[in-house]
Specification:
The complex is a heterodimer of chains A (431) and B (372).
Chain A: E1 2-4, E2 7-9, H1 14-31, H2 36-51, H3 56-61, H4 67-78, H5 80-91, E3 99-100, E4 110-116, E5 119-123, H6 131-141, E6 145-149, H7 157-168, E7 176-179, H8 186-194, E8 198-203, H9 205-214, E9 220-225, E10 228-234, H10 239-253, E11 261-266, H11 271-290, H12 297-317, E12 326-327, E13 332-335, E14 349-354, H13 360-364, E15 371-378, H14 380-393, E16 397-399, H15 418-421, E17 423-429
Chain B: H1 2-8, H2 20-37, H3 39-46, E1 66-67, H4 68-73, E2 86-89, E3 99-102, H5 104-117, E4 129-136, H6 145-152, E5 159-169, E6 172-175, H7 177-188, E7 194-198, H8 200-212, E8 224-227, H9 241-252, E9 259-265, E10 268-273, E11 280-281, E12 287-291, E13 305-310, E14 321-331, E15 344-350, H10 363-369
Parallel strand pairs in B: 1-14, 4-5, 4-7, 7-8, 8-9
Antiparallel strand pairs in B: 2-3, 5-6, 9-10, 11-15, 12-13, 13-14, 14-15
The chains are: A alpha/beta (431), B alpha/beta (372).
Chain lengths: 431, 372
C-alpha cells in the first residue's frame, strides 16, 4: 500500500507515483509552508482520540500486544505540552523567530533564518511498533516533506496512523508520502534518495551500510543505528534495591533494546569478585524472570541454543573462566575473563566482566559509536566522578540501574536532538 | 581408528543394544583423536571434560557437544587437507555454511553403512530406471551435502537418465517445474520405473501442481519416491506425511511402501532411512540424545527437546557430537511395530522465536544466524 497526498494507492502504482513525485514536492516547497502549530495541533488531536479509545479496535486488529499499557504513555507523548517541551528542549524557545547576530568588534550583523532541510527520506526499521510514524512526525515538526519507506516487517499500523493524521489535518497531506517498497528494489530507493536532501535511516549496521551505498554523495545521512547498553557497579548505595532494579530491567526488556544491559561490569580486577557477584545476583535475576510468563518450547530452545553457542565461542576464544555458568531457570549469568563490551546471548542471559575504573576509557572507547546507556550503581560519593569518567568514553545516557530503558521527556536520541538534525540555518546578509 | 572399524562392522545396522560397548570405544577413540589434533576442539573440551573422563557408555552424553552454528563460524579440521578426499558443505544462506571434511577411512565406513541400511527398504536394484531429482544438478561450484546425497542416491539402481528440477545457468540455480512435469509425463508412459529423489517440499509442490492440472499417471510398480533434505526452507508449508503419501498414490500410483524418507545433516552424515512405518530408527553407528530445552540435561523417551547426534564415523572434522537446531522426541523402538527394536527419532520442529523486535547492536544478525 502507498499513501500519497492523503490517498491510498496499490503498491503496483509505485513507479507512476514516483514519476511525478519530484514535481509535486517542488510545488509544495515552492508554494506552501507548514506551520509548526498545525503539526502540533494535529498530533495533539491524534493523542486525544487515542486516549478516548477511538483506536482501540484498530490497535487490537494489528495485534499490538499489551497496547493498553502503552496507550497512556503514547497519549502523554503525543500531547501538546509534551511536544512543545520537546521542541523547546531540542531547538530552544525562539528557534523559528528570525533574528540578527550581534558579533563583537563592530563586525557586520547577519540575519538567522531557520528552515526545514527540504525533503527527508525516512528508511524506517520495524523494531518498535509505530516507529516509522514517529520518525515522520519529527520530520513534520520541522516543516519537511517526508518520504517514508516502510520496513518489510511493518504490519500496516504505521500507514494507518499516518493516514489518520492526514484526515485530522488535511494540510499535512502534501508533506507525506509512504511507500512499502521492499529493500531489494534498489532502483526505486535510489529514485527516492535522489529527490531527498537527507536520509534518516534506522536499523543495524547492515541497513546503515546499504543506505550509504545507495545515497547520493550530496545527501545528508542521518543515522540512527543499533547500540549497546551495560551496567557498571562500583559499590552500592542501597544494595538490595539496586540489584533488584537491575534484574527487573534485564527481565523486562529481555535485553533486546539499545538501552538494555548486555554486560554487567564490576569495578574490580579479581575474577573471584565476578564469581561472588554471580552467586549473589542470580537469585535476584531469577525472581525478576519469574514475573514474566513462560515461553513456548521453541523459544526456550532457541534461547538455550544461543546461550550455549556463546559459551562454546567463548571457550574457543579463551574468554571464559571455565565453562562455568550461573544458571537459573530461563536465565543465566556468564562470568567472562575479558573486558570487551559485547552483546549478550540476550533473553536474560547476561555477561559479567571485570572493568576497573582506571581502564574504563581504554576499554569502552573500543566500542565508540555503539555506546548508549549505562546503568550506574555506586556509592553516592562516587557518582559524580564515575559519571564524568563514563561520559568521557562516549556513552550518551547515564541512568540508575532500573531506569536504563525508561523514556525521559526531552531527552536526546542517541546523543543528538533529531529536530536539530532535520533543520538548517539560512544566513541572510541585511542591507 | 580400529574401534571405528569394529563399530561399522556391526552386522545388524540397527543393533543399538549390543553395539553399545563398540560404540563407546569408538567414540572415546574419536574424542581422544579430535582432542589431540584440533586446537579449537581441545579448548572447548577443556572447559567441560577430558577424554579420560569418558569411562563408560553412560558417559557419552558428557562428550563436548558442538552446536552446528559453531561449524558455520569456524572451519574446524583435525587432519591435513590432503587427507580429505571430500569436503561437503551445508546449504547455508548469507554466505555462512558448515564445512565438513571426510577422511578416507570415514568414507569406507559410510559406504558400508549405506549398503547395510539401504537393504531395509530394498533400495538396491539391478532394474534400470530414470531419476527425477527435485534438487540441484551437480556443478563444480556446489559442494553441498544435499547435492552429493541426491546424486549418490541415483546409484541405488542403474540410471538411464537423470532430470533435475534445479538447473545451474548464468551463475545461479533456477527451478524448472514445467520441465519436470513434461519429463514425468513423457517417461511415465514407458514401462521403465521412475525414481524420484529430493526435498519433500519440492516433491509435494510438484504433486500438488500435477493434481491441480488433473494429470494422473500410473507408474511402473517398481517406481519409488525418495525424500531427503528435510523441510527446513518450507516449515510453514509442512504438510502431514499422510497427505503427501495419499497424493503420491493419486497422482503417480506410487503407494506408501515405495516412499522412503532419509534424514541426515552434513554435520552428522549418518544415513537415517525410515522404516516401513516411516519412523527413523537410530542406526548402530549413531546415538541420539534429546536434551532439555532449558538445562540441556539428557531426557528420556517421549520428551521433546534439542536433538544431539553422536557418531564416531568422521576423523577429519570434530563432528563426534553435534547439537542441531531441531526439536525432537526419541521413542522406544518397540512402539513402532515394524520389528526393529532400536529407538526412533521424531523431528517435530525447529527452535524458533517468533517476531522478535530488537535494536541492540548485532542482535538481529545473531537471531537470524541461529536459524540458518
Amino acid at each position: 500500500m502507498i499513501l500519497a497526498k492523503g490517498k491510498l494507492y496499490n503498491s503496483n502504482e509505485q513507479d507512476k507515483i514516483l514519476d511525478t513525485l519530484e514535481d509535486e514536492i517542488n510545488d509544495t516547497l515552492e508554494n506552501k509552508t507548514l506551520l509548526i502549530e498545525t503539526v502540533i495541533g494535529a498530533i495533539d488531536r491524534l493523542g486525544r482520540r487515542l486516549e478516548a479509545g477511538e483506536f482501540d479496535s484498530l490497535l487490537s486488529e494489528f495485534g499490538i500486544s499489551g497496547f493498553e499499557r502503552y496507550k497512556d504513555m503514547a497519549a502523554v507523548m503525543l500531547s501538546r505540552e509534551n511536544i512543545e517541551h520537546k521542541i523547546k528542549t531540542e531547538l530552544g524557545e525562539y528557534f523559528y523567530l528570525p533574528r540578527l547576530t550581534s558579533p563583537p568588534r563592530g563586525q557586520k550583523r547577519i540575519k538567522i533564518k531557520p528552515m526545514p532541510l527540504g525533503t527527508i527520506l525516512h528508511i524506517a526499521a520495524g523494531n518498535v511498533d509505530g516507529l516509522p510514524a514517529y520518525s515522520v512526525a519529527e520530520g513534520l515538526l520541522t516543516g519537511n516533506v517526508n518520504i517514508l519507506k516502510l520496513p518489510a516487517a511493518d504490519n500496516g499500523l504505521s500507514i494507518e496512523i499516518i493516514r489518520q493524521l492526514t484526515q485530522i489535518e488535511p494540510a499535512l497531506a502534501d508533506y507525506i508520502y509512504v511507500f512499502d517498497t521492499p529493500s531489494s528494489d534498489i532502483h526505486a530507493m535510489k529514485r527516492m534518495a535522489d529527490m531527498s536532501d537527507a536520509i534518516s535511516v534506522w536499523g543495524g549496521d547492515e541497513a546503515v551500510a546499504a543506505v550509504r551505498r545507495l545515497a547520493p554523495t550530496s545527501a545528508k545521512i542521518i543515522e540512527w543505528g543499533h547500540k549497546l547498553g551495560f551496567a557498571y557497579i562500583s559499590g552500592y548505595s542501597d544494595r538490595e534495591k539496586e540489584l533488584s532494579a537491575l534484574a527487573e530491567h534485564i527481565a523486562a526488556t529481555r535485553q533486546l533494546l539499545c538501552s538494555s544491559c548486555q554486560t554487567i561490569y564490576i569495578d574490580t580486577e579479581s575474577m573471584a569478585d565476578i564469581h561472588a557477584f554471580c552467586t549473589e545476583f542470580l537469585p535476584y535475576l531469577q525472581r525478576a524472570v519469574n514475573k514474566y510468563p513462560p515461553m513456548s518450547i521453541g523459544e526456550k530452545a532457541e534461547i538455550t541454543l544461543l546461550r550455549y553457542n556463546e559459551i562454546i565461542e567463548k571457550a574457543i576464544s579463551g574468554s571464559i573462566d571455565s565453562a562455568q555458568l550461573y544458571r537459573g531457570e530461563n536465565c543465566a549469568l556468564i562470568p567472562c575473563t575479558d573486558s570487551e563490551l559485547e552483546l549478550s546471548p540476550m533473553f536474560c542471559n547476561c555477561n559479567v566482566k571485570r572493568l576497573p575504573q582506571k581502564d574504563i576509557l581504554k576499554v569502552l572507547r573500543r566500542k565508540k559509536g555503539y555506546l548508549q546507556t549505562v546503568g550506574l550503581i555506586c556509592r553516592e560519593e562516587k557518582r559524580d566522578s564515575l559519571t564524568d569518567a563514563l561520559a568521557k568514553c562516549g556513552v550518551v545516557r547515564i541512568t540508575r540501574s532500573g531506569d536504563m530503558s525508561e523514556t525521559f521527556s526531552g531527552e536526546a536520541h542517541d546523543g543528538e536532538y533529531p529536530l536539530r538534525r532535520y533543520t538548517r540555518i539560512v544566513n541572510i546578509e541585511s542591507i | 581408528m580400529k574401534y571405528r572399524k569394529e563399530l561399522f562392522k556391526t552386522k545388524d545396522p540397527f543393533d543399538t543394544k549390543y553395539s553399545n560397548m563398540r560404540f563407546f570405544r569408538a567414540a572415546k577413540e574419536n574424542f581422544a583423536f579430535q582432542y589431540k589434533n584440533c586446537a579449537e576442539y581441545r579448548k572447548i573440551a577443556d572447559s567441560f571434560v577430558s577424554p579420560d573422563d569418558i569411562k563408560s557408555y553412560e558417559d557419552i552424553d558428557k562428550i563436548p557437544c558442538l552446536p552446528t552454528l559453531v561449524f558455520k563460524n569456524h572451519k574446524l579440521f583435525s587432519t591435513k587437507k590432503y587427507k580429505m578426499p571430500i569436503t561437503a558443505t551445508s546449504s547455508g544462506t548469507k554466505g555462512k555454511y558448515s564445512e565438513v571434511g571426510f577422511d578416507t577411512g570415514g568414507l569406507w565406513c559410510g559406504l558400508k553403512m549405506v549398503l547395510k541400511i539401504s537393504k531395509l527398504r530394498q533400495l538396491f536394484s539391478l532394474r534400470p530406471c530414470r531419476y527425477i531429482i527435485f534438487g540441484y544438478k551437480p556443478h563444480k561450484g556446489n559442494r553441498t551435502a544435499v547435492t552429493k546425497t541426491a546424486f549418490g542416491a541415483t546409484f541405488f539402481a542403474p540410471a538411464i537418465s537423470r532430470t533435475y528440477a534445479l538447473k545451474f545457468s548464468d551463475g545461479k540455480y533456477t527451478a524448472d517445474l514445467e520441465g519436470i512435469i513434461n519429463a514425468v509425463v513423457k517417461y511415465g508412459k514407458s514401462k521403465i520405473p521412475l525414481r524420484f529423489m529430493g526435498f519433500p517440499s519440492y516433491t509435494y509442490f510438484f504433486l500438488k501442481t500435477m493434481d491441480e492440472r488433473g494429470i494422473y499417471l500410473k507408474l511402473n510398480k517398481h517406481s519409488k519416491i525418495m525424500l531427503g533434505g528435510g523441510w527446513k526452507q518450507f516449515y510453514t508449508e509442512q504438510v502431514d506425511k499422510s497427505t503427501l503419501y495419499a497424493l503420491a498414490k493419486k497422482v503417480l500410483g506410487i503407494s506408501d511402501e515405495n516412499i522412503v524418507e532419509f534424514f541426515g545433516a552434513v554435520e552428522h552424515p549418518i544415513l537415517y532411512c525410515d522404516c516401513k512405518n516411516h519412523h527413523f530408527h537410530v542406526p548402530a553407528y549413531s546415538r541420539v540424545i534429546i536434551r532439555d530445552v532449558d538445562t540441556l540435561e539428557p531426557l528420556g523417551y517421549g520428551k521433546t527437546g534439542l536433538v544431539n547426534l553422536i557418531t564416531p564415523m568422521i576423523k577429519a572434522t570434530p563432528i563426534l557430537s553435534v547439537m542441531t537446531d531441531d526439536l525432537g522426541v526419541l521413542h522406544d523402538g518397540k512402539e513402532c511395530g515394524c520389528g526393529l527394536s532400536s529407538p526412533y527419532l521424531e523431528i517435530i520442529g525447529r527452535v524458533g522465536l517468533s517476531d522478535i523486535k530488537t535494536c541492540a547492536a548485532g542482535a538481529a544478525d545473531i537471531l537470524s544466524e541461529v536459524k540458518l
